[in-house]
Amino acid sequence: MKLIDLLEEARNSTANLALQYDAYNLLYSKNIKDFLNDNNKDECVKFMLSAMESYVKNDISKDIIIPNKERANHCVITWLLGIGINNRLNILKKRRLSDALWTQTAAIHDYGYFSEYTKHNDTILSKIGTKYDLLTDKYNDDLLLCLNDMSVKKNELFSYNYFEIKQYFEYSKFLHREIIGEDYSHEMCDHGIIGACLIFDKYCRQIYKEKKNIIPITPDNDITKVQKIAAITIASHNIFKNSKKDNPTWKKQNKKLKMLGLDKLMTNSKYKIAKDNELLSLLSLVDTIECYKKFRRDETRSMVNTNTILDTIDISFSNKKEIIFDMSEFVKKTNRNENKDEIIEKTTSHIKSICNMKDWTSFKTKQISDYCVKIRWIS
Q1: Among 59, 142, 152, 207, which residue carries the largest CB count within 10 Å?
Q2: Is the dihedral of CA 246, 310, 187, 237 positive or negative?
């Protein structure tokens, strides 16, 4: 099937979700192709706000989604793609809070991308203005007591402990400063960790400011746990192992990782995100294969419109365990594009990134042709 067909299928399955009426109204106001159109970013923003507020009944989401308007379509596609893939592969087992967890995580996973803190290489994580610390297991505030010792009680959801997340943030500054360089100057430290810390702080400030406006899913603080788990997942989703493949600086990177105590991310490490961390596994897969953010047309460049991306990429499933992701038709369709050479280069890089998932996640991958890859989930 085409990617657009999977998104349509995913949308049609959302009737089982506990979304509020406004979210459904927006999601079904147009056919899926028109809804995800480049000119429909405002509607995508409104939808993600409403979808989030189906689980968190306050104003926090307005601070989170609206600044990310340029990535609103990516957030919606990520959300739908995750639902569509999960319906086929059952990565997220039928946990009571899985719908809320996936909605919160998909909606805000790139929040830090546009933060001013992310643009500076000298950002100090402990001084970004957060009153409530995401990266701890000890809380004294009455509304946060339910989060104490979470990394012990929910160990499977923590692929990286608090120390490792903090150290990787330092590594990300080294990576952007000395390896990636000015070509990627809009991000000079890890946006996942910055975004997660800011999001968690915003949520905590909100529940103390307007206690009466918070309507939890159940009386036992489940929504607070959802926000913590989603934030930890977001903080972890850009943490990658070092690779030797086509990487002339791998030794330099290994040396820095060793110095920071991040041996598990060095090239010779066998460490991978465990399949038990279902939420991070799903986000890692979806955020890796989702290519709207890479090829989209915007105000600064003329690349490929959304419809071409969604209409020409093939995605199929077999044995309830495998995905075949094929961009061959996409490459043919864009052959006359003025940026065709860049598109081919980016497509090759995209397929390589998917193949490399076998090195840092529990997914097995195999390249079938130049622009086609098989992904296998071992449940």
Answers
A1: 207
A2: negative
Closest CA relative to residue 307, chosen from 331, 339, 330, 336: 330
The DSSP secondary structure of 227-256, one letter per residue, reads HHHHHHHHHHTT------TT-TTHHHHHHH
pLDDT at 218: 42
User: Which tens digit of pLDDT belongs to each residue from 331-360?
Assistant: 999 988 888 888 999 999 999 999 999 999
Q: Please tell me the total count of domains within the chain.
A: 1
Tokens of 38: 């480049």
- Number of alpha carbons in the 13 Å side-chain half-sphere of residue 292: 25
3-class DSSP state of 372? strand
d(CA 136, CA 151): 9
Answer for the pair 225, 217: CB distance below 8 angstroms, yes or no.
Answer: no
DSSP string, 78-118: HHHHHHHHHHHH--S---TTHHHHHHHHHHHTTGGGG-GGG
- Residues 155-194 have pLDDT tens digits of 999 999 999 999 999 999 998 888 776 555 578 899 999 9
Q: Are 154 and 248 in contact (CB under 8 A)?
A: no
C-alpha Rg value of the chain to the nearest Å: 20
Range of the domain at 266: 3-377
